[in-house]
Amino acid sequence: MARTTTLGKHQSTKFVFICVALLGFALIADLLWASSSSSSAYLYGVSSSNWPLQESHNFIPPHLHNTTATKGNKDTLPQRVVLSATFADLPAPELEWEEMAAAPVPRLDGAALQIKDLLFVFAGYGTIDYVHSHVDIYNFTDNTWGGRFDMPKEMAHSHLGMATDGRYIYVVTGQYGPQCRGPTARTFVLDTETKKWQDMPNLPVPRYAPATQLWKGRLHVMGGSKENRYTPGLEHWSLAVKNGKALEKEWRSEIPIPRGGPHRACVTANNRLYVIGGQEGDFMAKPGSPIYKCSRRNEKWSVTGKLPYRVKTTLVGFWNGWLYFTSGQRDRGPDNPAPRKVIGQMWRTKLHL
């Protein structure tokens, strides 16, 4: 009996010793891993900025703000912060940006169109609970804002479709109200010389942020998001217009767009209609937007330069070789793509294309 008790104590002591040894080995391995992770993150940031590795779907931001204190040591070690490579900035040349007169109000998801040296800026969120229902005008020549006037009460406040013929601005559908409210099918036209609004035939169904453009005497509206805000729409409609007036009472169905979704750019060139970029569904936009240019000779894209900071859904104009942008929403930094402040600053840079 005594022998059995002694053997049990011996086995218990041996088991405790093995557990302590394993814990010690794990602690040493963890310290070595933390040291190597810190070093590799530093070299990674120096050698390739914050461009994600080709074989990885994640990247480590160069500025690690989160720290963890080691037990019994007041010094801190940086935590490993890993984000999807979707949020990495692209390497690009630095541009010299000049801050101009700020917009009268901050805006997110508004809209803007340029006519000569004037930028007409429409609607948008001020905060998630407040939307603007007016138009501000920026003058590129004298760097001033002015000429504010109201929009129709029935007009959408964000996610607008918009096109111009150089005098009249056509405003199609969009979200009515703050938060994530439903869309409206109402459509209007603005005479920018008289600042007068007129009704247009309603779109067949409401849409969020459809691609909109004038082409061959017709106002084309494509894609956008459906009424649930998430499902991409594929429908394509057109309406004959001239000098700010609709020449037809109803929209005509056209060939559907192959892939729909909101926030897509739309331009015409060489008698063709181009739809570029955008979203499918409703998700966080990629921060750190670089500026691109496209060479039509070889149809390749190249990076022209960086913005002064990371921002999404800006409103843009171009005048006398200067690229301007205003408004939008910033994120919380290179290691946190969560949305932050809605802004109203205006910036410009001289482009050498």
UniProtKB/TrEMBL annotation:
It comes from the Eukaryota. The lineage of its organism: Eukaryota, Viridiplantae, Streptophyta, Embryophyta, Tracheophyta. This is Kelch repeat-containing protein. Gene3D superfamilies: Kelch-type beta propeller. It comes from Rhododendron griersonianum.
